[in-house]
Amino acid sequence: MATVLIIGAGGVGRVVAHKCVMNGSTFDRIILASRTLMRCEEIQSELPKGSLEIATVDADNTQEVIDLIKRVKADILINVALPYQDLTIMDACIATNTPYLDTANYEHPDVAKFEYKLQWEKDQAFKDAGIMGLLGSGFDPGATNVFCAYAQKHYFDEIHTIDILDCNAGDHGYAFATNFNPEINLREVSAKGRYWENGKWIETEPMEIMQVWDYPEVGPKDSYLLYHEEMESLVKHIKGLKRIRFFMTFGQSYLTHMKCLENVGMLGIKEVEHKGMKIVPMEFLKTLLPDPASLGPRTKGKTNIGIVAEGLKDGKKRKIYIYQIKDHEECYAEVKAQGVSYTTGVPAVIGAKLMVEGKWSGKGVFNMEQLDPDFFMEEMNVQGLPWNIREMEC
Ligand code: NDP
What we know:
This protein has helices spanning 11-22, 37-45, 62-72, 86-96, 117-120, 123-129, 143-154, 182-190, 230-237, 252-263, 281-288, 328-335, 339-356, 373-383; strands at 2-7, 27-34, 53-56, 76-79, 100-102, 107-108, 111-114, 132-135, 158-168, 193-197, 200-204, 210-215, 219-226, 243-249, 272-274, 277-279, 302-313, 316-327, 364-367, 387-392. The chain is an alpha/beta fold. The longest helix is centred in the C-terminal third of the chain and has 18 residues, at 339-356. The structure holds NADPH dihydro-nicotinamide-adenine-dinucleotide phosphate. NADPH dihydro-nicotinamide-adenine-dinucleotide phosphate (NDP) is lined by residues 7-13, 34-36, 39, 57-60, 80-83, 85, 103-104, 138-142, 180-181, 184, 292-293, 340, 344.
């Protein structure tokens, strides 16, 4: 039994709060804290009275997080605020010896670049504090890393190639909206593409490489090569890997809007002067776009995220596809959130549950594929993310 402190009350924070309450035998006290109390109050009102405590915190300020951790006596902290807060929250966990978990790697607000470097540099401090830091326990990163570890453990002697395939076939009825934080989402998809082959990173223009993949229960979809953070850790931890790529589906309407916004400068992250005021175009765009949390009741269709791994087993070639399909409307019915928030929030809760139960343990910072995948895969089936596995022709 543990006291869990959740930081961040957006789309993902809502799912994490609901699912922690549903896992009351693991989390006996749950506190949801965010910058804006109203967001926490809204989520609290959806849950049984007394099941969720709320608080405000500015997680850019390490001391505020330290004070909150001490006040609530947290046994574990789930960070589902924005990637900008990862380092300050990790520092607060180190200062208070509190196990830490997040779902996205650190980004600097003024630099559209994401990498694990600064979080991995905290490994020794986590070891010295005697605590575990679990990085990227969402779906991708997160479940996709675990799928790779599961493939490595049970299906291959050597994995040579991995394609991560992320399809959101949900329709929210808006011409343009993002299904998680618009700033983070648009920074990710408007950046240059990158994949890893034969020991080096190869850069592509944004959306330069496209393949059509036939997603089970969804159908064929245009899937574009992007850089995605889990590749950085997977190239370190998967034996014999020769190539890894990440593909995500986008509809034409999304791509046309994004190109147009980019062309007029609305995706800019540097301040501009507007009528004597300084504004950041991307932040202003976020204000105009629908709040991802509001997409829940409107979104229909499914997500399908998985990995295709190819390699050798007992000297023979093998290719497998591990994937998870989730229906947006089912997610909303269960936790009042759309599928992208659900598929991120549930793995965060599973990661925290395994840490609290001691099934995943260690001192230092860890990426998901470094831990035994079997516990996580079992929990996915129990917690609402059942997965499938298919042998494919090589
Ligand atoms: P939202 O923008 O919906 O929510 C973010 C929340 O964090 C808001 O409640 C916001 O508060 C709060 N917050 C922001 N800054 C601070 C701060 N300084 N102090 C305290 N709270 C703060 O984002 P999502 O819920 O969509 O995403 C949450 C995280 O999940 C992100 O890091 C995202 O990158 C990650 N993610 C990971 C995925 C994966 O598969 N691994 C997929 C999708 C998302 P306020 O309302 O005041 O702004």
